[in-house]
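Re: that chain you flagged

S.,

Sorry for the slow reply, it's been a week of failed gels. I finally had a moment to sit down with the sequence you sent. For the record, here it is as I used it:
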Amino acid sequence: MNIEELIKQKKGTIVDVRTPGEFMGGNVVGSINIPLQELGNRLSELKELKAPLILCCASGGRSGMATDMLSHENIECYNAGSWLDVNYYQSL
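Prediction finished late last night. Pasting the structure tokens below so you have them in one place:
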């Protein structure tokens, strides 16, 4: 199943790794905000979320770094790129 299908079928949890300020400026309905720099300290919280984690940010760079980091912790996750793309897929 690809990312678009995961989002459309509401599988997993959408995690936005942007800063709280960026998140407040616009976000995907139902997403949660855990900034990239906080991921390492919040691993137990992340492991309890409904998998897979669908990671997004502004352009896909930070969510790509988050995907690498969380994959090394054996957390099922995918880089969905921009939150705007995730928002679009969710609306289909």
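What I noticed first: Strands lie at 13-16, 32-33, 53-57, 77-82.

Talk soon,
D.
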